Amino acid sequence: MSKTAEIKRLDEIIEGASKLPIENQEYILTTIKGMLFTKQLLLKQNQQLKINKNHSA
Fold first, then answer.
1. Which residues of 7-27 are buried (b: 16+ CB within 10 A; e: fewer)?
2. Rounded average pLDDT over 8-12
3. For residue 35, which phi and psi values (nearest 5 degrees)?
4. Phi, psi dihedrals of residue 15, rounded to the nearest 5°
5. Cα separation of 47 and 53, whole Å?
6. Using CA atoms, how far apart are residues 15 and 13, in angstroms rounded to an integer?
7. How many CA atoms lie within 13 A of 5 on its CB side?
8. Which of 3, 47, 55, 56 is 20 to 30 A removed from 11 (C-alpha atoms)?
9. 57 falls in which pLDDT band (50, 70, 90)?
């Protein structure tokens, strides 16, 4: 998915979520934060694996 498509999808999620009660909005926000944290963690792990692979070669 392209960066533009990702942004458009996030905008759609936010638009839909804004119509929900606050409790549901907080749940969605927490879920998104968890997803971003996991993505960053996996990216860092992948970078570390590449570095380790280059050092052992």
1. eeeeeeeeeeeeeeeeeeeee
2. 89
3. -65, -40
4. -60, -45
5. 10
6. 5
7. 2
8. 47
9. low
Residue of 31, 2, 28, 34 lying closest to 15 (CA atoms): 28
Using the Cα atoms of residue 20, residue 21, residue 27 and residue 33 in order, give the sign of their dihedral. positive
Four-CA torsion 38, 41, 45, 51, nearest 10 degrees? 140
Cα–Cα distance, 44 to 57 (Å, whole number): 20
Do 44 and 29 form a contact (C-beta atoms < 8 A)?
no
Instruction: Report yes or no: 17 and 25 within 8 Å, Cβ to Cβ.
Output: yes
Angstrom CA distances, 38 to 22, 41, 45, 50, stand at 24, 5, 10, 18
